[in-house]
Design brief:
The structure is a single chain. The protein is mainly α and 277 residues long. Helix content is 64%, strand content 0%. Helix 9 runs parallel beside helix 11, helix 10 crosses helix 13 and helix 11 packs antiparallel against helix 13.
Length: 277
């Protein structure tokens, strides 16, 4: 029973993982840290004395060379940029902009200028991209609603549809048969948890399907009265969950209190299973 229950709970886990993806911040391994720590020192160790005081004058030739290099580096970093450098990095001058605008008005018509505007170019690119995605060549590049939804709900790279359906049917059939065959009540102690698992999974899956976003590349998606979100394999999973709930509610409804289920929980289980209030 634990294995089959884990298969059903895997739907909730995959949905939760999709809605709350783990952070992908790179972490440095211990081996890399050891390699970095083992590198030879290329500079002098950090000073331990008061660094805000005036430094002592260099006494050796090496210290004098380091002092001279540091002074030159500071002067280059703190000196203002020369006028020639500023002019080379500055944008076009107002007169150059005026000449450029005059040439554009003389060489291009108003319609050509509008066609070459950034907004027009983006619109044309989007039109060509949509035409490509609608063509047979662009079909492999579409992230369709059906394919993305099945990957989250049923797993990837291989679908676990049959495994999930078999797990639900096996658990519910075993639970119902235990009423007559389980003389020692070993199965009945797990009935309450099984009903709660089916209720939570059905509610979570139904809510996820209704709120699942459509990818922009799915150019052929049409949601007429909610039918576009009805994916066959996912609907089969939902039907199996509701069918199992109906069996359990019908078989153990009179024993809910003894099983540890309150009237409110049984009412919710019946509503989720489609039995009404």
């Amino acid at each position: 029973m634990n294995t089959c229950t884990a298969v059903i709970q895997g739907i909730n886990n995959r949905i939760a993982g999709y809605q709350n993806p783990p952070s992908t911040a790179p972490q440095q391994s211990i081996q890399q840290q050891n390699q970095v720590q083992s590198l030879p020192r290329l500079s002098a160790p950090l000073r331990q004395d008061q660094i805000t005081l005036n430094p002592l004058p260099p006494s050796t030739s090496r210290e004098r060379i380091q002092s001279e290099i540091g002074t030159v580096a500071k002067s280059l970093g703190q000196s203002p940029a020369s006028p020639s450098a500023k002019s080379s990095l500055s944008p076009l001058s107002p007169r150059a902009k005026q000449y450029l605008g005059t040439a554009r008005n003389k060489l291009l018509t108003q319609g050509q200028q509008e066609a070459m505007s950034p907004a027009s170019l983006r619109s044309q690119f989007n039109d060509y991209l949509m035409q490509f995605l609608r063509s047979p060549v662009g079909r492999p590049f579409r992230q369709t609603f059906q394919r993305r939804l099945c990957a989250v709900v049923l797993g990837t790279p291989y679908s676990e549809l049959n495994v999930i359906v078999d797990a639900i049917d096996s658990l519910t059939s075993l639970a119902v048969a235990s009423l007559k065959e389980d003389n020692f009540g070993k199965v009945q102690k797990d009935i309450a948890g099984l009903i709660r698992t089916l209720v939570n999974t059905t509610t979570c899956l139904d809510s996820f399907v209704n709120g699942f976003a459509v990818h922009w590349s799915d150019v052929n998606f049409q949601d007429m009265n909610g039918q576009g979100r009805r994916v066959e394999d996912v609907e089969r999973t939902l039907n199996s969950l509701r069918t199992g709930l109906r069996k359990l509610v019908g078989a153990f409804g009179d024993y809910a209190v003894e099983l540890g289920l309150g009237p409110a929980e049984m009412r919710i289980a019946g509503e989720v299973a489609g039995l009404g209030s």
